[in-house]
Amino acid sequence: MARFLAVFLFFSLAYAAARLPADEVEALRVIGRTLGKANWNFTSDPCGGVNGDWVTTSMELGFTNNLTCNCNFQNGKVCHVTKMYVHSFFLN
Predict the structure, then answer these.
(1) Domain positions in the chain
(2) Per-residue pLDDT, 77
(3) What is the CA radius of gyration of the chain?
(4) What residues have CB less than 8 Å from 76, skipping those under 6 apart?
(5) Rounded distance between C-alpha atoms, residue 37 and residue 15, angstroms
(6) pLDDT digits (tens, 9 = 90+) for 18-76
(7) Nearest 10 degrees: Cα torsion 31, 37, 41, 42
(8) Can you tell me the distance from the alpha carbon of 55 to that of 7, in angstroms, rounded to the nearest whole number?
(9) What is the distance between the alpha carbons of residues 54 and 62, in angstroms, rounded to a whole number?
């Protein structure tokens, strides 16, 4: 059982390590700064969510962000942003 768990964790972590190239992460940082999106979390891979998506919604702060990635590059080791949706519930 312990061996199965170790193998499962190894493959889970290996799959979760794919990823958005550094230049695309930097582009997202620039876009976030330009839009005033100080709440974007770059401590984790933006393409590392469920189905390779980064979704953040806060009704309290009045926003939703959705970043969609395609992680079918280099056998699932590299992702690229394919769609980006940023919406504010409060318009000034």
Answers:
(1) 2-88
(2) 87
(3) 16
(4) 15, 18
(5) 28
(6) 588 999 989 988 988 888 777 677 777 788 765 555 676 666 666 677 888 888 898 88
(7) 20
(8) 29
(9) 17
